[in-house]
């Protein structure tokens, strides 16, 4: 007779690509994850988690799409036809595939194809980096797909110094949330906003869509996508005209004021009205709020970076805080990068010293182009897709699929579930979910370090990333302690255990029922220009960036419009049902996705709410369900990102409409928001 184990509550941490990195309570019964709730181990997330994590993790871990055994492709590439094999057979096939490519074309003919699936330090990048570095495989610059533009915009001003933790905004009297849908992708900032407003703070939302938080704010600024730099630079010029800049702070804490302002003065109120689509009175109201407020906090999401002038928009908007002297005290600053306070030692964790001199690096946005380039020397003949679902997340989806269909390309896939990308692999290695392995977690949106251990056994024959790459390293003949290191050792390699904030406890041993706050020296709160000094070459906030001028020609921000060849702009922000493409295979996402349209645009096309529509441009056509709403501004469509191929009648998603040849001003990043389309009716939902 089977004995049932009572339900257990065990600590865990959310690893998804989100700034909050919540502490979790995992409810386990009979070795299965049955429920997930927030825990109080992390004071910032404090028992609250988003609906998608609460609702979809049990299905994700134990559902029909879960990969539980190694597989070998037996049908045509892309068909999803596989046969179960043993781990030994799978490792042999991977080793043979990589060895064949290396023997014929050299080690750089192998390319890892990964991004940011789990954000644990071990699962996100540890033994896998050691493996590919030892091999001498092509390197991948992953940031340009998402995050690098925002990150570089920040560090160009402040260096790698931690910014303002979000909790400090409770001390602000004005908070600006710019390009950040906090209720969907930065949930815990909402509590801070609520507390600050209860104390009298004003809240300004800048976004192309009237997002949920905009319904509760003091001023909603519905900006046209990609024009943020114009608004920010025009505000700088307007505040200068009003003599509202903090010249003492500028003198003491910044460099590059004159060239920055010379550029800012080129932008007028008329530009804001004509390009940003913001009424003059509203622009002047923003300037009034800047001028009258004592402590301003500003939060910037990744939305701004998704346009051609994204780097400039972020730099200009962040620079407003320095120009107005909003640093050096509680409640004043840029809410960003507080996670830089964690003493990560990634070079040691990744064993960067193994990288052969002269190894080439590809921009991840260029992968489809590189795979299709017949003149590339050496060509990419083998790749491994892991921690990533590129088919669901990359621009120019049609060309990426074409690249993955190459008959002569050996593809290894490793994931928790069967994704659109796994269907192109020759061999699939089942990966464990984060509920099934040890890891240590920093964060990019808050300043706590957390650790988690397995709460359930590995499902089926799945393995943690670290063990998968240990076995691959052994099969490829890579020996030495760095390739046999335990997960405990890897956690200690991931962080500087000598840092006094660890209190003489090794990273691998920190408690799991609490979290470590990474404050500044002597336990002081992180306050830029007080307890934290800008980590730039000058030691000051650099309004003019020599680095960006040298590398990209953007020492100061500027606007560069992209010619629009279709009447509507499509933006694809975060979904309330998915984190990027994670959970895209769950039942709630296994249906046609919506596209939101302004009533004026709908009426002009003879469209009504709930119509099934085809969104199209010269790249592709995608079917979506229409939602007519004035929350979206005229000329702009809104459709959540991360959908999977089966959600559209055309077998393609909105990513097929997104260009890959238009790039951001800095870091050569993907321009998801420079997607121009039109819409026509397909048929009413429910009709044949």
From TrEMBL:
<dbReference type="InterPro" id="IPR050612">
    <property type="entry name" value="Prok_Mopterin_Oxidored"/>
</dbReference>
<dbReference type="InterPro" id="IPR006963">
    <property type="entry name" value="Mopterin_OxRdtase_4Fe-4S_dom"/>
</dbReference>
<dbReference type="Pfam" id="PF01568">
    <property type="entry name" value="Molydop_binding"/>
</dbReference>
<dbReference type="InterPro" id="IPR006656">
    <property type="entry name" value="Mopterin_OxRdtase"/>
</dbReference>
<feature type="domain" description="4Fe-4S Mo/W bis-MGD-type">
    <location>
        <begin position="7"/>
        <end position="64"/>
    </location>
</feature>
<dbReference type="InterPro" id="IPR009010">
    <property type="entry name" value="Asp_de-COase-like_dom_sf"/>
</dbReference>
<keyword id="KW-0479">Metal-binding</keyword>
<dbReference type="InterPro" id="IPR006657">
    <property type="entry name" value="MoPterin_dinucl-bd_dom"/>
</dbReference>
<comment type="similarity">
    <text>Belongs to the prokaryotic molybdopterin-containing oxidoreductase family.</text>
</comment>
<dbReference type="Pfam" id="PF00384">
    <property type="entry name" value="Molybdopterin"/>
</dbReference>
<keyword id="KW-0408">Iron</keyword>
<protein>
    <submittedName>
        <fullName>Molybdopterin-dependent oxidoreductase</fullName>
    </submittedName>
</protein>
<dbReference type="Pfam" id="PF04879">
    <property type="entry name" value="Molybdop_Fe4S4"/>
</dbReference>
<keyword id="KW-0411">Iron-sulfur</keyword>
């Amino acid at each position: 007779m089977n004995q049932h184990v009572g339900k257990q509550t065990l600590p865990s941490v959310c690893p998804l690509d989100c700034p909050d990195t919540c502490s979790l309570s995992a409810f386990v019964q009979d070795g299965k994850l049955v429920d997930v709730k927030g825990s109080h181990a992390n004071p910032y997330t404090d028992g609250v988690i988003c609906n998608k994590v609460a609702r979809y993790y049990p299905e994700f871990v134990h559902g029909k799409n879960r990969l539980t055994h190694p597989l070998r492709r037996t049908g045509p590439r892309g068909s999803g036809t596989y046969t179960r094999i043993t781990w030994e057979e799978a490792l042999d096939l991977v080793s043979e595939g990589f060895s064949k490519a290396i023997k014929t074309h050299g080690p750089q003919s192998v390319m890892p194809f990964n991004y940011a699936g789990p954000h644990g330090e071990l699962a996100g990048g540890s033994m896998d980096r050691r493996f590919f570095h030892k091999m001498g495989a092509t390197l991948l610059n992953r940031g340009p797909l998402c995050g690098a533009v925002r990150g570089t915009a920040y560090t160009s001003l402040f260096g790698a110094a931690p910014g303002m933790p979000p909790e400090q905004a409770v001390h602000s009297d004005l908070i600006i949330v710019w390009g950040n849908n906090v209720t969907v992708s930065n949930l815990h900032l909402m509590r801070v906003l609520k507390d600050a407003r209860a104390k009298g703070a004003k809240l300004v939302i800048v976004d192309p869509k009237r997002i949920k938080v905009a319904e509760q704010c003091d001023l909603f600024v519905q900006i046209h996508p990609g024009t943020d730099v114009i608004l920010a630079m025009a505000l700088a010029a307007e505040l200068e005209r009003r003599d509202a800049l903090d010249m003492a702070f500028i003198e003491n804490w910044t460099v590059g004021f004159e060239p920055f302002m010379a550029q800012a003065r080129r932008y007028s109120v008329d530009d804001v009205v004509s390009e940003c689509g913001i009424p003059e009175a509203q622009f002047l109201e923003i300037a009034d709020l800047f001028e009258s407020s004592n402590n301003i906090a500003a939060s910037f999401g990744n939305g701004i970076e998704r346009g051609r002038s994204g780097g400039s928009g972020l730099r200009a908007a962040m620079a407003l805080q320095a120009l107005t002297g909003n640093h050096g005290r509680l409640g004043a600053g840029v809410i960003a990068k507080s996670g830089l306070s964690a003493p990560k030692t990634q070079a040691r964790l990744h064993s960067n010293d193994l990288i052969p001199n002269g190894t080439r690096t590809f921009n991840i946005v260029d992968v489809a182009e590189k795979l299709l380039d017949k003149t590339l020397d050496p060509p990419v003949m083998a790749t491994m897709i892991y921690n990533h679902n590129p088919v669901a997340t990359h621009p120019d989806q049609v060309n990426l699929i074409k690249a993955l269909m190459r008959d002569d390309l050996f593809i290894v896939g490793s994931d928790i579930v069967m994704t659109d990308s796994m269907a192109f692999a020759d061999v699939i290695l089942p990966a464990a979910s984060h509920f099934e392995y040890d890891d240590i977690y920093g964060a990019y949106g808050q300043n706590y370090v957390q650790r988690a251990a397995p709460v359930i056994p590995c499902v089926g024959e799945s393995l943690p990333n670290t063990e998968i790459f240990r076995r691959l390293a052994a099969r490829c003949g890579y020996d030495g302690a760095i390739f046999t290191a335990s997960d405990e050792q890897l956690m200690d390699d991931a962080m500087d255990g000598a840092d006094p904030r660890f209190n003489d406890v090794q990273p691998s041993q920190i408690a799991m029922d609490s979290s470590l706050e990474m404050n500044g020296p002597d336990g002081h709160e992180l306050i830029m220009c007080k307890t934290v000094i800008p980590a730039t070459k000058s030691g000051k906030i650099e309004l003019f960036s020599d680095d960006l001028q040298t590398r990209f020609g953007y020492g100061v921000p500027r606007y560069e419009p992209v010619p629009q060849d279709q009447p509507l702009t499509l933006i694809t922000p975060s979904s309330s049902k998915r984190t990027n493409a994670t959970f895209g295979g769950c039942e709630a996402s296994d249906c046609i996705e919506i596209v939101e349209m302004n009533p004026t645009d709908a009426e002009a096309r003879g469209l009504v709410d709930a119509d099934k529509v085809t969104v199209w441009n010269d790249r592709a056509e995608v079917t979506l369900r229409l939602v007519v709403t004035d929350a979206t501004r005229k000329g702009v469509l809104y459709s959540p990102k991360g959908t999977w191929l089966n959600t559209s009648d055309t077998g393609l998603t909105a990513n097929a409409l997104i260009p890959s040849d238009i790039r951001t001003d800095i870091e050569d990043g993907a321009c998801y928001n420079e997607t121009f389309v039109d819409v026509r009716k397909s048929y009413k939902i429910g009709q044949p």
